[in-house]
Amino acid sequence: MDSYSKTGYLKDDFRLFHITDEEEHSFSYHYHDFYKILIFIRGDVTYHIEGKSFDLKPYDIVLVNAGEIHKPVINSKSVYERMILYISPAFMDACRDGADSLNRCFVQAQTSRSNVLRVELFSQSRLYQVLQELEKSFGGDAFAAALYQKALFLEFLILLNRFSMDAYTGTYIENSRCNSKILPVLDYIGEHLAEDISIDLLASRFYMSRYYLMHLFKQETGYSVASYISTKRLLRARALIQNGMSVTDACYQCGFKNYSSFSRAYKKLFHTSARGERNPS
């Protein structure tokens, strides 16, 4: 079975990185248990997320939900430069203004079947100015630096959501490449995690032979059907547990039939016990 590791660790409410790869680099499929925003600056990169592929242009904004399996593919030896923001789900949940949630842009990305927001004249926008000021704020120890960083970060998120809601200034771009046979399979899996999902069932439902489905799924997403389903179930279970559901209920509500198997798989993936999520030391 394939193994896709969680990369990046986040102990703060948010983090910002400005990364430039001068040499050609290969990335593996991975996921995070927090939100990720990537601002692409330069390079020759195709971003793969959950069976979809996007050929990036400078200043495209890539929105990756917690738990989405993804990787960039570097298509040539050109320099790959980007800025990355990691955001804690708990912090995102806490930053609400009534019914307005700052994760709306991520929700829209899912609804639009696109993870890439293209903002008109981004490099001349207030959004980009705030991002630059936010990056500078990490480099000094000015008065109330942490508070200023938080204020800038909240302004960035608010502006990002506003741009994502305005069709004249922000557009979720279409997939550069995707296989129309795989996206419905991914949707079905996501909507039926609590139910029995077998390769034979999927093959029958989507009119493919099981061997063709297995080959196509691996080719288009980078991972096997079984590994994908297991990982998605565990990620959903973890979210439910962290939101207060009992470990046993989360286990069965996410499609696991045996608690012992669930417990072993959980510890293997997250390197901690499921019960430890409820009672952290």
From TrEMBL:
InterPro entries: AraC-bd (IPR003313), Homeodomain-like_sf (IPR009057), HTH-like (IPR037923), HTH_AraC (IPR018060), RmlC-like_jellyroll (IPR014710). The keyword DNA-binding applies. It holds the Pfam family HTH_18. Residues 183-280 form the HTH araC/xylS-type domain. Keywords: DNA-binding, Transcription, Transcription regulation. It comes from the Bacteria. This is AraC family transcriptional regulator. It comes from Blautia parvula.
